[in-house]
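# nightly structure sweep
# worker-07 picked up a monomer target from the shared queue
# config: single-sequence mode, recycle default, output format = structure tokens
# input follows
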Amino acid sequence: MVIDENRLAALHNEAITGNPEAARELGRLLCLLPDEPDGEAWPLPHWPGEPWLRAALTARPDDASAAVLLAGVLAQQIELRYVLGDPDSAIARRQGEALHLYRAVLRTDPDHPTARAGLEVLRRPATALTSDDAYSYYRLDAAFPDGAHTARLITAEPHELRWAARPLLTADAALSLTLHTPADKPHTLQLPGGLLPADLPELPGPALPPGHPVRLTLDGSEVIAYYGYGPIL
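# output follows
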């Protein structure tokens, strides 16, 4: 489905009237963006998709998809907020809420793959996901010219990648696109001129679920990353 301002506006209009499915979908799409659609810059008191995922869960507490998406957003913030100097109590609240959300999903569905992986990351980050290579996804990395930070965008949908990548493609950043598939080693394409390939390579195998964490090996070090947009300081 095409993603544009009209689609976001339609979802927003439905979400503010109390439609939990619209709130969840709006929250999911906004997880792919670096800031609010109206231009409010990161870092925000919350991340763009967070309020809508909370609204979806308030209306429907058993919504596992909204729960793991919100838990992933909170988990992704933990290290970043530590670097930004947030109080330990604020960081602990995020971690505690993410743990609660994952455990609530697993009580209903003990085999939920994203909840299991997310809980494992929070409990045992050093060993989590060491054998989790079951999904395919695109990873767009952007290194900004000031050298102060980089950013990463992870999604399994090519139309979402094209839509969400626009702020990075116009940011005068050095870009690379990596394809992760279950059967092969990651394949990286440098993107001179800040342009995505006209024909994005198709991804075989199961697509990475929204909210799912992944383990990456970057410059000899292993890091945990999450579906969606992630600034890296």
